[in-house]
# Entry
Amino acid sequence: MRTFFPSDSCKESQLNGFNPQSWLQVERGKLSKLSSHNSSSSSIESFIKVPEPRILPNYKPVDYVEVLAQIHEELELCPLQERSSLYLLQFQVFKGLGEAKLMRRSLRKAWQKASTVHEKLVFGAWLKYEKQGEELIADLLINCDKCLQEFGPIDIASHLQTDINVAGSHETVSMSGDQVLRNVVFRIHEEKIECDRQKFAALSAPFSAMLNGSFMESLCEDIDLSENNISPSGLRIISDFSVTGSLNGVTPNLLLEILIFANKFCCERLKDACDRKLASLVASREDAVELMGYAIEENSPVLAVSCLQVFLRELPDCLNDERVVEIFSHANRQHRSIMVGLASFSLYCLLSEVAMNLDPRSDKTVCFLERLLESAETDRQRLLAFHQLGCVRLLRKEYDEAEHLFEAAVNAGHIYSIAGLARLGYIKGHKLWAYEKLNSVISSVTPLGWMYQERSLYCEGDKRWEDLEKATALDPTLSYPYMYRASSLMTKQNVEAALAEINRILGFKLALECLELRFCFFLALEDYQAALCDVQAILTLSPDYRMFEGRVAASQLHMLVREHIDNWTIADCWLQLYDRWSSVDDIGSLSVIYQMLESDAPKGVLYFRQSLLLLRLNCPEAAMRSLQLARQHAASDHERLVYEGWILYDTSHCEEGLRKAEESIQMKRSFEAFFLKAYALADSSQDSSCSSTVVSLLEDALKCPSDRLRKGTEQSRKCLC
# Structure
């Protein structure tokens, strides 16, 4: 969802010293026109070089329908404790399809069906991570029980019950007459602590045997415990616990000392009490880092899971803390069992995804994926771990390791990993072998678009073009074929055909790399108005986007291009927006709105219109960002309520969104408020009779004053229903 895996060839290719300023100085007379250069074709070719498609670290089965149907069938038949793992697999399938909404739905199902506190914790943290930014609207969700459960901390101690015998009695050896001593004195160096012999013996089987069995200590009134790493203060607390069964007012350091002592002498009730008491004291990352080592060393599950909860609630920031990374990276199978029970694979799936989003080449990404592989229990889990680790090894240019991993993934049944093997063969100079590898796949299974796309990399001329045409026919959503064809046409000076080709995909898929390529085309053509439109659309989607292999900030290019364009007045902008909105020119509308937001125009309504466009273009994360900005810049309370309602609606809280719409209508009847109420009611009600009410609400909306931008609004919001 957020992961960016640049191809090695993209990083290694050079743009022959490309300087964006030089391309933007032609109208100032500092450079001659591009068309006057004899080397214009080669200059354009280097300027618009298209990187190879990247090997995605996703589970991509050959037959998605078959796999999803199989998962559905297994969900109906499997034991309850296996459901979360199956929903996680379903999530991975949807990730391979790029279906963000379905991915989130699967994660929510995994969280809802969690059978252990460990699974609840992991999937709750994952949902929280996927919803980064929604913390800013926490006040809107405060009355939503689902969100409070999902984002709020879990009472770990109440979920982890122990099977300890509360009475704590242990079988004792009967002794006669004067041999039975009521009390025993434990000596620690110069200090003596008197304890109830039978109460202390009841703490554990070892103490019962020592004090009541055939050991000589059973006849002693004074026993030396000086060499057992317990202080007099600690032993007094243990003595009190043997009588009262509680630990009150004990400092953390003493609790740790008693925990170690209890674990050493198998005092399970005492150990459990220390475990829970220490767990209640974990309030920060510093606490968790300090106590996790003790929890693992002393096998204290409540403390370990409490520390884990702190780490997961601070994702992704906590993975910038080397101490936290070391805890996760060095955990062996036993440590993982203490820390996360049977949810080890789910935990490292989450950690690996976060690490790949931060830096797919990092050592911590490799470590987490290695732990993921160790945690895998099924073939499908193993093939995913093999493939993901292979992708990361490929990025790190660790080619031999990557090859072994891709081979293991293929042997486990992941055909897509053959693309990784072919890429490695090509890197090692075996281009024909790579071509034949893809040939064998295409002839042995029902071919998919990515197979022809990958094979096209290992052939030239007409064969390459033919493979890319087949790739597009089988999977029109693949960006690379359009980009390659468009750039090839551009280098041949066939400008009209090149623009038509890249516009084919931008007509239904707003891909940043495709917008960047078209921006390059317009720069080469010195069409700065069109170039400005594309770079402003890019900045709307991703304000921090960097172009030309990450070397130039899009915002910098935006400033340079703006110098070649006459500024529009606010009136000009509104006219342009009406025209482009009416003609359903979504990219153009985004560009105009971006420009208007830099002026003194009312920002609330503009950000709202921007969110509608982004939803229609299937960019939900950018749309949510725009909605939040609309809320911040709302010009009135009734307007703010509408934006809050849409935020709640778009985060699956239809009933809460409906209430916001009603509050807004009570203040002022508006098109947006009625429109929100209609959609929220349609989604929140299962009663078929509500359809007439929805129609009536939409009619009421049309009776309200209009800003003449309604055309397209209904179509935009239909994308959500």
Q: What stands out?
A: The longest strand covers residues 183-188. DSSP finds 40 helices and five strands in the chain.
